What we know:
6 helices; 3-stranded antiparallel sheet; 32% helix; alpha/beta
Amino acid sequence: MHVWLLTEETSKKLKAPLGILIQNNEDKASRVLSNLPECGLIVSVGDATLDYLLSINVVPDIQIVDSMEKRMVREQPKPAHVTAFHVSNARGTISGESVDAYKKALSSTKPVRVIVDGEEDLLTLVAIIMSPANSCIFYGQPQEGLVLVKVDDNIRAYCQKIFESMIEYGR
């Protein structure tokens, strides 16, 4: 099985938001909604992020969830009437299976939900690297708010560099 493992150095690079931080104390809804006209594909990473977007009537094209929040089991966000792919992705890794599922999600009828057995956090990198330009990737920044990454060549190259610094196994 092909897998990429997060290193301590790589982990430090991912502590800072990769895009625009919309803080919890701001009017998040208006900030999110005002950016949507510029978005091609809309992707959410994380259960709480998906819940929040659905609560303001934004249905992401691709939804990556693991039915966990702060490492506690939770009910999967609704609505569940989506095309679904199930993958395994251990904490601190990116599995080849997850990369393949994201490729399939990009070409599938939307909305698509990638349901992860394990942890979905690092799949933010996969979403940024693989999504087309002008896609908007939303993910949670613990205790701070919501991060919006507008995909362009610069952020894609930065994330690709981070991905390439991970330790690769099973090739």
